[in-house]
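User: Here's a chain of 129 residues. Predict its fold as tokens.
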Amino acid sequence: MKVAHLTGIPEPLNRESFKQFGMTFYLAFANSQHSFDEVIVADDKVVTCGTFTATHLGEFQGIPPTGKPIQLSIMHLDRVENGKITEHCGQGDALGLMQQLGIVFLPGPALIPHILKSLPSKLFRKSTK
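Assistant: Prediction complete.
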């Protein structure tokens, strides 16, 4: 592979930096498994869509191991030449990962009525100041 483009990483990665990123990820998330629901091949491109599952057993980007199982939606677009991947584009659900690790909190459906109920009073208070 010559180049990889990953969501959240501004610069393309070369083969070595992609390998380092992958090793960091796989050391943090043990018992990993990719399962693909869709595989589409067209000309020199292969698209795979599916799920990545693992257990967070190592440090990841400064986050200590939680022991929590994770499940991410993933999508890859690879360009193939002579039977080898030459370019990789990867997309994973980073927000979902942060939620599962307890780093990001998003209100669940049970909280939405309470949020909506308090919204008018918050808006009214701001407009009178």
